[in-house]
Each structure stands twice: as structure tokens, then as C-alpha cells.
């Protein structure tokens, strides 16, 4: 089980801020493929991965990163702080 | 470093920061303010963040800046939640022996806060709400460091 978090318009498209996901995905990209196959709202959120960023356990990473040992994965658009 | 919903007084923060310095000859500060949309009509700005990651990401940037420019001290305060036009969103202050290091470190922190601290801004107007898109120039600005 892994905690999956969504922020900003990713959260709005998927319709929830976080969920527990049972997954055997080996990489972030595999997890995205599993979620996308579930329901249209996931496909809508993940349709353009170049517009998204991902963090594993609160560290920025990329979509090819392995999920082994990860507790928390977060998806969000490019950040707009400052 | 503080991430908070509550408003703060950047002048008072700067005075406290400056007064605490023993060995610095230069203090530089920047504050970011909620501005209207180009077309006007902003009711407020909503700032969402990723609790936990926000703190660790900012702490990492501050640590890098302090080491790279031999800062005597650095301060970052960033708000989240709903902010009205004119409200202070965030501030950065740096203290160093000489001004060049204080200026450079403040710019470095601002560039990184913009593109690597997990905040997202949404502009809310009477005609609807829209997420602020990240700008290519902001991402490119990281290249100079």
C-alpha cells in the first residue's frame, strides 16, 4: 500500500487530495499507467506528463523512478511559489 | 524558516532579523505581494502547499545558500491559504559580511522558492478561478546557479 497525494489542478481533476493505493507498480510511470486505466478522471489528470511533477517521500524525482520502499508519492503541476 | 497561514509584518521581521546579527555588514530583504491580474478583478489568491515537503524543501535551499555565500543568517517566511490583493505572501532576508553575497543569496533563494518549493497559486476573480501557470523564464533562471 502506498499513499498517493494530489495537489492543485491534479487534485481538482481527480477529485480528492489523497488516497491509499494497493499497487504492484515498479516505477512511478507504472503507477500512472495503473491509475490511468482505472477511470477517466485519472486519464484526464495524467494526459500530459510533461506538465506534471512527481515527488517520492517528499523529494522531487522523475517518472522513471522506482517505487520500492516508497511510502508516499505526490503528483502536482510545476510549482509557483515565491 | 516559517510556513504559515497567518499574516506577518515584514518590517518588524526585518528589524528583528537585522538586530540579531553580530557579524554581518549587509542585510538584503525581498517581500512578495499579491498583485492584481493583468485584466484586473482579482478577489483573492489561494496558495496551496504540500505540508512537510514545503518545510524540507525550503530548509534545503537555505542550507545551500548559507554554505555557498557564507551567510551569517537567512530568513524565509512563506504564507499559504487565501490572501487578498496587496497582502504580503512571503519574504526572504539574508545577512552576510558584504552586500554582494547577501544579494546573490537572496536572488538564489527567490529563484528556488519560485520553482522548487511546493506551492501553487490560484487567482480567484468574480468571473472564475484559474491556477497560475509556471513560467519558462522562472525555470530557466535556475540555470544561472
Please describe what this structure looks like.
The complex is a heterodimer of chains A (82) and B (145). By secondary structure, chain A is an alpha+beta fold. Chain A has a single domain, classed as Ubiquitin-like (UB roll), CATH 3.10.20. Helix content of chain A is 29%, strand content 26%. Chain A has helices spanning 8-14, 28-38, 40-45; strands at 2-6, 18-21, 53-56, 59-61, 72-76. In chain A, strands 2-1-5-3-4 form a 5-stranded mixed beta sheet. In chain A, strand 3 and strand 4 form a beta hairpin. The longest helix of chain A has 11 residues, at 28-38. The radius of gyration of chain A is 12 Å and the shape is globular. The model of chain A has no long low-confidence stretch (mean pLDDT 97). With 145 residues, chain B is of the alpha+beta class. Chain B has one domain (2-144): Molybdopterin biosynthesis MoaE subunit (Aldehyde Oxidoreductase, domain 3, Alpha-Beta Complex), CATH 3.90.1170.40. Helices cover 34% and strands 34% of the residues of chain B. In chain B, the strands form 2 sheets. A 4-stranded mixed beta sheet of chain B has the order 1-4-6-2, with helices on both faces. In chain B, strand 7 (119-125) and strand 8 form a beta hairpin. Chain B is globular and about 50 Å long. The mean pLDDT of chain B is 97. Classes of the chains: A alpha+beta (82), B alpha+beta (145). Chains A and B meet through loops of A and helix 2, helix 3 and strand 7 of B.
